[in-house]
Design brief:
2 domains, about 120 residues, mainly alpha
């Protein structure tokens, strides 16, 4: 019963996020749903233990969620192979950009909170 309750809570936040997203229009519903879930956990509306098991299962099996996207990419292989090296360059540059910006944000947070490691 605990697992069903956890699934219901997560899906309810996803549905609420999709509904709010349809009103807002420019933020994806899944993102709004995650923010709502975060706020619910932060404010104590939802207890951490009620969703922990389902959340651990979902995050532990994220490969399943990326499989449909990968299959869609393979379905468009004819279009992608025309400019294969251009796509590789875009992926490499964007990956480096995300790594660098994530590092800078982490360093900024550590600087602001004063939790820098003494080296």
């Amino acid at each position: 019963m605990k697992i069903i309750k956890g699934i219901f809570i997560i899906l309810a936040h996803l549905v609420a996020g999709n509904l709010l997203s349809s009103l807002i229009g420019f933020i994806p519903g899944s993102v709004v749903g995650m923010v709502l879930m975060f706020l619910s956990l932060l404010l104590g509306i939802v207890k951490e233990d009620s969703v922990r098991e389902v959340a651990e299962f979902l995050t532990g099996n994220m490969t399943l969620f990326f499989l449909p996207a990968f299959m869609g990419i393979m379905d468009l292989w004819g279009i992608l192979k025309v400019n294969f090296w251009g796509w590789i360059a875009v992926v490499a540059i964007s990956t480096v950009a995300v790594l660098v910006s994530s590092g800078w944000v982490q360093q900024g947070i550590e600087y602001i909170t004063g939790k820098e490691d003494a080296e």
